[in-house]
Amino acid sequence: MSSPKSPSRLTFAESLEQTLARLGDRQRTAAVGGSLFSLASLLGVAGCDPAAPPANATDVTARTQEVIADGQRDWAQNMGTRDRSMVRYYHEFWRNYTDCGSRFGCSSITMFVKVAVKPVTGADLSYKKVGIAYREVGSPNPVTATGYYFGTHPDGMEEWHVPVKSFSHQGVFTFNAWYEDGKYGRYYDDNNGELYALGWTDATADYITVRPDFASSTAKITDTGIEGRLSLVIEDLDYDKDLSLEWTTDNWATTNRFGMGNAGDTNKVRWDSNISRDFDRWVVDLSIPGSFTKFQFRIVYKHGVVGGADTDTFVGGGATGYYINKS
Q1: What is the pLDDT of residues 269-283, one digit of tens each?
Q2: Which of 149, 176, 201 is the last residue of a domain?
Q3: End position of a domain, from candidates 161, 176, 201
Q4: Higher model confidence: residue 202 or residue 69?
Q5: Beta strand 81-82 with 186-189: parallel, antiparallel or unpaired?
Q6: How far is residue 171's CA from residue 136's CA, in Å, rounded to a whole number?
Q7: Are residues 28 and 52 in the same domain?
Q8: Which residues are paired to 3 by β-bridges?
């Protein structure tokens, strides 16, 4: 009779089974019949796809905001060890438009995320797995995706490609990379707790992550300058963020910048309210004197700005920016 596997050799599926076995009959029934509700709450996992509080005074009010996927940890973070020497995101990816037809175009996007892992001697390849756990708009929990081996680099690190498919593909998704080494280890790279972020579409086609809400804005250009509120809708990736407004009145011959501020500040970007589970409203109360007929602006959103994390930047408005004309 074969000896039982060491707990550290269990795959994630076997870990789920073992955890269910430890639950009482009533809890086990509820977990299975209720789509693993109790277990999902414990481990922070939603399912599988085959393919700190705020750092500055500006965000004090935003502690009640509902960040994407409620900011919950996933199973890899709960069960593994953070170690970028064993697994790390390469900061490289590519995307394919999928499920395409001649009549209605493409209904989904598949992102291929590159992950590097360090192989270990004596690994059981049947238990070796690499993937990411990601969170996207409209999904209340992290989702797991697994990848496939691509090649080995001169430094000995293996390159794996993880396909992540979405039919909603709205804005940006956040993720961490995980690695079960096939021997004793389970590791993850979550960008020092801040997670990584990628856009489902090219930045020029992203109208979800950062965008102005002109219907809720009151800013107008007069003979003496621009006055009033500029309202912004921001996908809420994290409690910690850096938002700024870049603007010009001379078609970007010169560029000006407004940073983050607090309630009551003028010419500062500040948190205003929750819009929904995944989005917040931020505002800028403008008061800029001068004589001009066009006000152009870009919204710069930096994610991963604390704890030594790698920063991802998203710009709403592109090279030319959004604009307000004098009426």
Answers
A1: 999 999 988 999 999
A2: 201
A3: 201
A4: 202
A5: parallel
A6: 8
A7: no
A8: none
